[in-house]
Amino acid sequence: MSPALNTTASGWRRASGALALVGLLAFAFADLSIARASPGQELMRMAQGFLAPDFFSTEFLWRAIANTLAFAWQGTALGALAGFLMAMCWQWRAVRAVAASVRAVHELFWGLLLLQLTGLSTVTAVLAIAIPYSGIFAKVFGEFLEEADPAPAAALPSRSSAISIFFYARLPLVWNAFKAYGGYRLECAIRASAILGFIGLPTLGFHLETAFREGHYDQGAALLYLFFLLIFTLRWWLRPALIPAYVLAAVAWAPPALHLKPEILIRFVTEDLVPAPLRQGGGLHELLQWLNVLWHQQLWPGLWQTLVLGMGALLVTALLSLLLFPLISPLFGNRLSRLGGHGLLVILRTTPEFFLAFFFLILLGPSMLPGILALALHTGAIVAHLTGRFSESLRLRDDAPTGLNRYAWEVLPRISPNLLAFLLYRWEVIMRETAVLGILGIHTLGFYIDSSVAEFRFDRTLILILATVMLNLLVDALSRGIRKRLRLKPGHGVM
Asked: Which of 211, 229, 245, 303 could anchor a disulfide with 219, C-beta 3.0 to 4.6 Å?
């Protein structure tokens, strides 16, 4: 991937400086305290567990692995189908708005809502993945179709139907890109499926959380290694010819049978989600008072903490990306160092931010620091990987300097616009993940969403989730505006 950039150095320097300044201001307000009295001792215990994993002490381990894969396959298949149908109508603004709205809500938030209707069931897990993934697939597929060469469609007879044009002149041009992105999204779905265990669904994450919370680090390490094994071997066992068999096996293992009584759904929509003042016969004055209390007690604190943590994480992500991309760039080091750097980045970008934040919370205690570290390490590894790949396209002079001078004066000025583009593309994802880290106890919007669900105050849950949607849409619009202004376009590989 070596996109052509048409931007000015002063433009991206100003944009980078502004984002860095906001990140520094975020650190001024962030809670970076370490609550654990002896994190080093706990880290040693954790390291011992990772060096001596116990693969035989977790009950129903293989059932948890099968559930993780079954939920991921079904959620991805359903999300891809819905996203494909929406992509066919991507020119409609309403379709784009629906896709943006559903993908702005994290899988865990969908899971928390669906639990109230369908319980700890396959349907809950599958829909929690499929609903946001439909919006993601629609966006990516729709943009692939928009960027496809229009010449084949224009060459067809004028009387050709829209369906014929789509399937014979447009779809073949992007089919390989569709398949490649589907494989990447399946990998993301396996991570999402595992994370759903943190809200009680029987996946690997459920057992991993239990093991680490109880201090059984050898058991937790074994589970994490098995999770890595699933992801790292994906390229070998994921074959296009076997996809129908995998989907059928997933449905056979965990049938998505829906046992939902209509009256439960009707009550949830017409009563539980209705603001308490209106449900109790109050009027506009009571509703405004209720919203004012919710704003001061939960909405504003949650939004503020989400912004502070997210912007702090974006700054650290940028710094880590600058430090890590030389590890895999052919312009630096040797074959052995690049092999080690590639392994490090693969591990960091494969481990979900949610898992990393959970580990850091155990080590450091509840503050923003675990969230910032988790988001920065995971996203920094992704951006460093993409930047390192982009650096492969650079050609240096024969007399180019080496070492630090090469990095600072030859490479960094040329990769900086692309690195900024990658960061802006990942900005929405960082904010989305920041909100959901609240489920672990960090006081972002997710903390208040989880609390409102636990208290069965679903009217508050709806308002808080809508706040996350608006925040993510705002960040996405701001990111797109900056990229458009600077003409930064790294492609779809950063989704």
From this structure: 211
